[in-house]
Amino acid sequence: MAKTQRADLHQRADALLDAASELLVSVGPRSLRIEEVARRAGVGKGTVYLHWAGREHLLLAIGAREAAAMYEAVTAAIRLDPVEAALHRYLRRLYLEAMQRPILRSIFLTDEAGLAAFANQPARSDLAETKLIAADEHMAALRDHRLLRANLDLADVDHAVQAIAYGFFAAGPLLPGDPHFSLDHRADLLAEVIRRSFEPARTPAPQRYAAAAPRIISASERLAARFRRIAYGTAAD
Questions:
Q1: Which of 81, 140, 157, 232 has the most CB atoms around it within 10 Å of its CB?
Q2: C-alpha distance across the termini of the chain, in Å
């Protein structure tokens, strides 16, 4: 595909995703309609289908674009300070990035029926494999540089970390609106649970994080690129 044509497709995809994102935040996943997305973007309904196969595919693309930006922000933070690759700091930043983005927050806090639109997309199976590989690479880099407690099973750590993080994402709407539990405070609590559960009691030297960071950055970049490919459809070809 010619460079100019690809740029035009990418720009049009962004316009459609912008329109769809506004609708998703205002009406929720179950009420989002392709016709209204097209109307807001100033194009015909058929133009949307040039990028995505249908409403559920578009929903996945909306979330994927935000997830790509989230992982890019996390990667940038690790580049600036490799200690951000520490498991507790990585999870803290992911949590803040996700909850400060209205689209991702709406995905994490939506009801089970609404979330099915994301879970049932065929493209999600490839994404799940990429996420698993990225998580394995991150954990392995931390283990190899003695940034996790000794003798931990990495599969157990990954499962437990996901369960803990999911609990923090899901618990918000169920808890009283106590101002003490600000977003930053909840992120700090998540980080402390992760640190105490899986990391050495004695804080590792910064040089060990610097040594582990390149592998972790590479894995995060691959994951962000995969999310972007899902988000932009034919514009990513």
A1: 232
A2: 7
What the chain holds in terms of domains, given with CATH numbers, is: 66-230 (1.10.357)
Contact (Cβ atoms closer than 8 angstroms) between residue 173 and residue 186: no
H/E element, 34: helix 34-41
- Tell me the pLDDT tens digit for each residue of 69-107: 999 999 999 999 999 999 999 999 999 999 998 888 877
Q: How far is the CA of 223 from the CAs of 4, 127, 217, 219, 228, in angstroms?
A: 26, 8, 10, 6, 9
**DSSP code of residue 50:** T
Whats the size of the chain, residue-wise?
237
pLDDT for residue 112: 47
At 129, is the secondary structure helix, strand, or coil?
A: helix
Q: What are phi and psi of 33, to 5 degrees?
A: -125, 140
Torsion (CA) 27, 28, 33, 35 in degrees, nearest 10 = 40
Asked if residue 227 lies in contact with residue 71, where contact means CB atoms within 8 angstroms, the answer is yes
Q: Taking a C-beta distance cutoff of 8 angstroms, is the pair 13, 51 a contact? A: yes
- pTM for the model: 0.86
Structure tokens at 111: 């009801």
Report d(CA 42, CA 175) in Å as an integer: 41
Amino acid symbol at 112 = E
The answer to whether the beta carbons of residues 168 and 190 sit under 8 Å apart is yes
Alpha helices in 42-182 (DSSP H): 45-49, 55-80, 87-99, 102-109, 112-119, 123-144, 154-171
pLDDT digits (tens, 9 = 90+) for 135-189: 999 999 999 999 999 999 999 999 999 999 989 988 766 666 667 788 899 999 9
